[in-house]
Amino acid sequence: MKSDLDRLMKSRNLDAILVTGPAQHNPPMVYLTGGAHLTAGDLVKTVGEDAVLFFYSMERDEAANTGLKTKNLDDYKLHELLEQTGGDHLQATVLRYQRMLSDLGLTKGRIALSGKSDAGSAHAIFSGLEKALPDIEIVGELSDSILLQAMATKDEGEIERMRQMGRITTQVVGKVADFLTFHQAKNGILVNKDGAPLRVRDVKSKINLWLAERGAENPEGTIFAIGRDAGIPHSSGNPNDTLRTGETIVFDIFPCEAGGGYFFDFTRTWCLGYAPDEVQMVYEDVLDVYGKIMGELQPDTPCRMYQESACDLFEEKGHPTTKSNPQTEVGYVHGLGHGLGLHVHERPWFGRTATEEDRLSPGVVVTIEPGLYYPDRGLGIRLEDTVWVRPDRKMEVLAEYPLDLVLPIKES
Amino acid sequence: MKSDLDRLMKSRNLDAILVTGPAQHNPPMVYLTGGAHLTAGDLVKTVGEDAVLFFYSMERDEAANTGLKTKNLDDYKLHELLEQTGGDHLQATVLRYQRMLSDLGLTKGRIALSGKSDAGSAHAIFSGLEKALPDIEIVGELSDSILLQAMATKDEGEIERMRQMGRITTQVVGKVADFLTFHQAKNGILVNKDGAPLRVRDVKSKINLWLAERGAENPEGTIFAIGRDAGIPHSSGNPNDTLRTGETIVFDIFPCEAGGGYFFDFTRTWCLGYAPDEVQMVYEDVLDVYGKIMGELQPDTPCRMYQESACDLFEEKGHPTTKSNPQTEVGYVHGLGHGLGLHVHERPWFGRTATEEDRLSPGVVVTIEPGLYYPDRGLGIRLEDTVWVRPDRKMEVLAEYPLDLVLPIKES
Hints:
Two copies of one chain form a homodimer.
Chain A: H1 5-11, E1 16-20, H2 27-33, E2 42-46, E3 52-55, H3 60-65, E4 69-72, H4 78-84, H5 89-103, E5 109-114, E6 116-118, H6 119-132, E7 136-139, H7 146-152, H8 156-182, E8 184-186, E9 189-191, H9 200-213, E10 216-217, E11 223-226, E12 248-253, E13 256-257, E14 266-272, H10 277-296, H11 303-316, E15 337-339, E16 346-349, E17 365-368, E18 371-374, E19 379-382, E20 385-389, E21 395-397, E22 406-407, E23 410-411
Parallel strand pairs in A: 1-5, 3-4, 5-7, 8-23, 14-22
Antiparallel strand pairs in A: 1-2, 2-3, 8-9, 10-13, 11-12, 12-14, 15-16, 15-17, 17-20, 18-19, 20-21
């Protein structure tokens, strides 16, 4: 949680955190500013002190609305620094950072860097800064960053926002189910009143519309993949595909609050009209593993344990998994879940990058999403729900929705 | 244009371009892949060769659909590299990059880096790579990057997509105008049928809905700012504000194609019901400068020239500008425009970072957006259109829309 930051900074021997970039669709900046219409800026938090937000003058109202301590970047007079450096934009930017840090008393120490930025610019600027200030170490922490660690456990306010996103998400999933079952099938293909086939793109545009109606955004798109495509976990689905009865549809939806706030993440697998025996059997294997894992979840246990457990359960049923072959492309091919919050994927991790610290600590929100993939047999199945480990150590699914495989369809 | 890349790489003495990050909402990656549902990946283009896209196995179909040469990142066996480095994620990632580059024959030379990424991770990984491969120089180019230079001039296909975004944008602006004029004012405040005041948030949610209906996204939000807020260029508007007659509304809308494709950018200023004399006078000054600048635009001329010209024109009319005071917060306080494409703001630049190379070269698409801001007088005015410098050297406004200030409103 945010209130853990000072403690975490001390334990990592960090003197400051520097976050850069816009305050929308940029999780570390959204986390520390509360989200604001800032197209660019920097935020610096030193140990034991409140964060200071550096903003551009044109966005002074938006910056003030965050309620943070603020400083105006235009007061650092980039135009003068550019003159001083003969128009060298990189050197002028480095000089400006030097002065910003110095104004906060930061002339030495370890500074953790994060925020969404152009990789090349970030590398150039912060390498330049390290050269200019040899007593400063810029720390990049990858999947183990201090902010990801703080973000992993959510407070009540964050849970309420995620719960609301869960409501919106399952409402839209329900609308998609109604929309599909409202259509009839002709020769095994869903058609509209004019007899023209319904296509994946039609469903996706409805999804975006229904999300927008509810104030949500869908920046990363939706997976709505049928048949063979359902057998490739991250195949988003061919927009031109028709909707054929008896084939699996993996429907994975992961919208966020407008402006790049909290995400939800949810998957169901549907078969229109009926499920062939082969599909039904694979579905039941996934459902069984889903149920067993959900029943096993215990607070404070390491996430890796459940990844192992899911692999073992699938192997027992005769499916290949990443445990027996880390590069398998059939069977159970991905991680069991991931943390969820301002990123679709965040800590705690379940897969290869998981450490002993990735645990079901009270406060975390994780997805549980077992699946089986057989693209050559034209099928894929995934079921995903989002679980909050409550402070009272109980597990709570943040948005309930039936797990049914078959959506009834009339044949015309 | 993309076809200039090899020439530009040679002129900058670059051996390769390395782009990292997702293929949605990440302009360099969208530019070079054509956009795809890839949550992560890397793309490397060496001089004279086609680009190679490194993808994760789960996204192999999406990668294949780009039509690019591809390599599977899972073949580099991160799990083995993690074992080799004792679980050090950073070192394992550096090793993987080392092998990826080596597979493309890159063991020395200058590599330009770009792509949206976590600043800290990028800095750590590419500093690590430079240490591991001392003959490789990772080049970060800030606002002068080779990709921004290539992107500045658009081909016919790109223009068609931007023109379509212009159509969608002006359709939605028209719908907002209709929506507002459909309401009546009561005691100078727009109200709905029940007599409850209409608020900025109601307008913004309609905008998102109408954009979604048309297949567009609005990841950076909309500026719809009334009264004093209109006087702060990037104030996005208070969601709770009522819509008061006789006050200026700056309505700046900048949606993009779904998935983070081409943007449009468009501003009108409206006064509901009537315009007080003071507002009318300031509006006419902006309109006059807008008309003069639009009439002056000539192909191949430097953008800075028009920024100068706009300052001179405003100063002649008695308004402070950034020319007389670079930090002014009243009068004409920002750049005249900017390039537009996969970024809302890209080259050519008009403001402080503009160089001799930022010109109205045939193929560029720029916004022209003069404005005047007097927050303490409760007003701001901006007019913005998007201009394409055509290959036949004519200027074309990509989406036409009336410039009128006053929206007629009935007083009930």
